[in-house]
Design a protein that fits this description.
three-stranded antiparallel sheet; twelve-stranded antiparallel β-barrel; mainly beta
Length: about 325
């Protein structure tokens, strides 16, 4: 009996040992996978705008526009190269040319003549090309980098047939501020001195071809949501010696993304010249023939000027100033990298 009482506790103790939980077994440590290194921020960006218009038939117009902006951001500054070209070829209206060799008296209209249809070829009607290179370097910045002082230097070249500008070169240097420099919003201002060297189609005795000036610019970009971006660039250049001689270039654009690299863009550029170039024009008079005795061809006929109609006679040539404001509206495909 006593043996049985001793065996039962021993068996219970042995079962307890078999089912007792021992200390947790720690699995061998797995070496940690190093986090992937972040990709370095890309230092350069490039944006290209391309527009093309081509019509044929009753209207012959060929318009090509190309604009490219390249920026490179260094540790203590940024470089920008901008190129802009616009060319439009148009054809004059067709006309009927009367055959040569027909004689008729003044005041009469010839009859029974043959004509030949003439359709002029397309010729350059608008041609404007612009290039600018600029470097903005850091001077100092505060701790939160919301406002950063910069210096800048660069040059631009332009030719514009319609505006009467054969060549205009501007070199500039000055100071500026990056008031905002975020991915979704940027605002930059510059102010400094410039030197302009220009050649116009007709020499203008009232304007200097070379002059020192003051140049102000603003660049603004704002993203509206995930796919829309608004841009506004403003440039003002004025002569120090003649403050009435100044030029303004204002360009506003709105683009909508179609993909990561493609967008549709509309833009409006306003070019204002306070003293535009001279333009050579014909001095035209409209006259009617007066025959006092009613007998044609006896030598007493005279011309009398009238407001319009009648016979058009070119008396010579004179100079006038071109329009002060030029506007360029574009719709284009924008490619961004």
């Amino acid at each position: 009996m006593i043996r049985r009482l001793l065996v039962i506790p021993l068996l219970a103790f042995a079962c307890g040992l078999l089912h007792a939980e021992g200390p947790p077994v720690t699995p061998p440590a797995t070496p940690a996978t190093p986090a992937p290194a972040p990709e370095p921020a890309r230092r350069w960006t490039n944006s290209t705008e391309f527009s093309l218009v081509y019509t044929a038939g009753n209207s012959d117009v060929q318009t090509l526009g190309l604009k490219n902006t390249f920026e490179y951001k260094a540790d203590h500054g940024k470089s920008r190269l901008k190129m802009d070209g616009l060319r439009s070829d148009t054809a004059d209206d067709p006309f009927l040319l009367v055959e040569s060799g027909i004689q008729f008296e003044p005041g009469t209209v010839p009859t029974n003549f043959a004509t030949t249809e003439v359709r002029p070829e397309t010729e350059p009607d608008v041609a404007r090309f612009f290039a600018e290179g600029r470097y903005d370097g850091d001077l100092r910045h505060d701790g939160n980098r919301k406002r950063k002082a910069t210096w800048n230097a660069g040059a631009s070249w332009e030719t514009n047939d319609d505006a009467g500008i054969v060549s205009r070169t501007i070199a500039f240097a000055g100071l500026g501020h990056d008031w905002l420099d975020r991915d979704d919003r940027k605002f930059r201002t510059t102010y400094g001195l410039s030197f302009t060297d220009r050649i116009e189609e007709i020499f203008d005795p009232e304007k200097e071809e070379r002059f020192a000036g003051v140049r102000l610019t603003t660049d603004f970009m704002d993203k509206w949501g995930a796919s829309t971006q608004y841009d506004c660039d403003f440039t003002f250049n004025v002569s120090i010696a003649d403050t009435n001689d100044y030029n303004i270039d204002l360009t506003q654009g709105l683009s909508v993304n179609m993909s990561n690299h493609l967008a549709l863009k509309v833009s409006l550029q306003l070019l204002y010249a306070a003293e535009p170039a001279l333009e050579e024009v014909d001095v035209v008079v409209h006259v009617q023939l007066i025959d006092p005795d009613g007998i044609p061809g006896n030598g007493d006929e005279i011309f009398e000027t009238i407001p319009s109609g009648g016979i058009e006679i070119t008396l010579g040539e004179d100079n006038i100033r071109k329009e002060q404001l030029d506007s360029i509206f574009r719709t284009s495909l924008q490619i961004t990298f």
